[in-house]
Specification:
Number of helices: 1
Strand content: 15-25%
Oligomer: single chain
Largest sheet: 2 strands, antiparallel
Helix content: 25-40%
Shape: flat
Order of helices and strands: HEE
Number of strands: 2
Strand order of the largest sheet: 1-2
Distance between the termini: 59 Å
Structural class: alpha+beta
Length: about 70
């Protein structure tokens, strides 16, 4: 019984993580006008007007200098 529950939990975890990865879009900012940002995205046909989108700035690798 416990093995079956563990298998179902692992399957659900895998399914959720697959959907999360599939939902990511690669976008490029093309214009900024005050509070309005225009982006060009690959696979943008998945988006609809009014959808909420989370945007993260690109991460920059900080150089660490030694003595």
């Amino acid at each position: 019984m416990k093995k079956g529950i563990v298998a179902v939990v692992l399957a659900l975890t895998f399914a959720v993580s697959t959907v999360a990865v599939a939902g990511k879009l690669k976008c490029e900012v093309t214009a900024v006008d005050g509070d309005t940002v225009t982006m060009t995205c690959k696979k943008a046909d998945k988006l609809k007007a009014g959808d909420k989108v989370k945007v993260s700035p690109p991460k920059s690798a900080a150089a660490i200098e030694g003595c």
